[in-house]
């Protein structure tokens, strides 16, 4: 079975709760739905989130690279030739989430063709992921109210606090209010999206040392190598690489150079093929990972669940799988649900991303 065409469909869905964080903000999901068409009529689907402040991609750049470069370069390739596809796509630098979506859509075709859930094909470790919810910038008491609501309504007890603000006391206070309000059983960690310097990050770690934060993600700019290395060496909690380690090479580099000792794996930017390589590398080096989010829609989230549940090393921690709840609507024909803080893999052939075509027609940008 061969690829005949790759289609990129731009759409926009508003957010009910816009998210603000140190590197940017989102008020609408102006994403791109990618469809891989084949000569046997099977179509694979994946979602692509443009994040100019992280990967330099925009909705238009994703459409252009998918339709003008990847579609002609990958057409004619056998659907199982995933590593060849990666090699071809890697001739074009960057464009991280566009590459990730093409890979996931190809896996979706493979699962549909073999009549198997992709999570089983990838590793089949378990049937669900525990959910972590990401809290954007807000006053501390509002954050606590939101977290308590998420716990009450969805059973979520793991929260990532967006940090990186100035003065740093804003985030230190938010961390303290969350810990005191949620109690010792809640799992809490912070993500500063490079908002602080290494010294500010060290000061935050010092002042939050009694709060049981499990790790700190991307505190400062990892390119400021010595500052980051000093931070990692001296921190009593792990320092995680997210946007400093978007692919296999950078993930290996950050671990080997002491820029991080924990890794976020995001299917939106790594697809399943490269994410599997990052996972193997991390496991072999004794590095823990977690499934991060790219403020994913339900289409993106089910891809993360598919990957995360497939492996012991990714499913042992909560994955960031619930920010679609901040959106006004979504495209999945059968909406996701979170019960007792868990999302289950879909027991259907492929990834489980059947699209509601009426909704797509409604939200697509013509
Ligand atoms: C994160 O972990 O940094 C921020 C932007 C985005 O797309 O995802 C995030 C979450
Ligand atoms: Mg992050």
Automatic annotation (TrEMBL):
Keyword set includes ATP-binding: no
Keyword hit for Coiled coil: no
Pfam family, one: MR_MLE_N
Keywords carried by this UniProt record: Isomerase, Metal-binding
InterPro entries recorded: Enolase-like_C_sf, Enolase-like_N, Enolase_C-like, Mandelate_racemase_C, Mandelate_racemase_N_dom, Muconate_cycloisomerase_anti
Domain Mandelate racemase/muconate lactonizing enzyme C-terminal: 140-238
Similarity remark: Belongs to the mandelate racemase/muconate lactonizing enzyme family.
PANTHER family: O-SUCCINYLBENZOATE SYNTHASE, O-SUCCINYLBENZOATE SYNTHASE-RELATED
Protein known as: Muconate cycloisomerase
Source organism: Kocuria gwangalliensis
């Amino acid at each position: 079975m061969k690829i005949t065409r790759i289609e990129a469909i731009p759409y926009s869905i508003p957010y009910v709760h816009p998210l603000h964080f140190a590197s940017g903000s989102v008020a609408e999901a102006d994403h791109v739905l990618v469809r891989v068409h084949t000569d046997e009529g099977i179509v694979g689907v994946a979602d692509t989130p443009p994040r100019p402040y992280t990967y330099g991609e925009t909705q238009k750049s994703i459409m252009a690279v998918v339709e003008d470069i990847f579609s002609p370069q990958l057409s004619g390739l056998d659907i199982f030739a995933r590593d060849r596809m990666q090699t071809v796509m890697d001739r074009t630098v960057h464009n991280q989430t566009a590459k990730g979506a093409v890979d996931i859509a190809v896996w979706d075709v493979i699962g549909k063709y073999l009549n198997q859930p992709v999570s089983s094909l990838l590793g089949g470790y378990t049937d669900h992921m525990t959910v972590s919810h990401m809290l954007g910038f807000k006053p501390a008491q509002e954050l606590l109210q939101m977290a308590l609501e998420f716990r009450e309504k969805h059973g979520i007890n793991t929260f990532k606090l967006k940090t990186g603000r100035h003065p740093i006391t804003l985030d230190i206070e938010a961390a303290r209010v969350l810990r005191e309000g949620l109690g010792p059983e809640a799992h809490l960690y912070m993500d500063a999206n490079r908002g602080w310097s290494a010294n500010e990050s060290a000061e935050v770690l010092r002042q939050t040392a009694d709060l049981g934060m499990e790790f700190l993600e991307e505190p400062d700019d990892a390119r400021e190598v010595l500052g980051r290395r000093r931070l990692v060496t001296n921190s009593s909690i792990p320092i995680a690489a997210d946007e400093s380690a978007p692919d296999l090479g950078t993930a290996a580099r950050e671990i080997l150079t002491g820029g991080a000792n924990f890794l976020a794996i995001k299917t939106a930017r790594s697809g399943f093929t490269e994410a599997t390589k990052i996972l193997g590398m991390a496991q072999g080096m004794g590095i823990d990972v977690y499934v991060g989010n790219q403020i994913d829609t339900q289409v993106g989230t089910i891809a993360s669940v598919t990957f995360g549940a497939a492996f012991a090393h990714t499913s042992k921690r909560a994955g960031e799988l619930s920010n679609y709840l901040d959106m006004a609507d979504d495209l999945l024909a059968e909406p996701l649900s979170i019960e007792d803080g868990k999302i289950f893999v879909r027991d259907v052939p492929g990834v489980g991303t059947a699209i509601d075509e009426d909704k797509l027609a409604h939200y697509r940008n013509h």
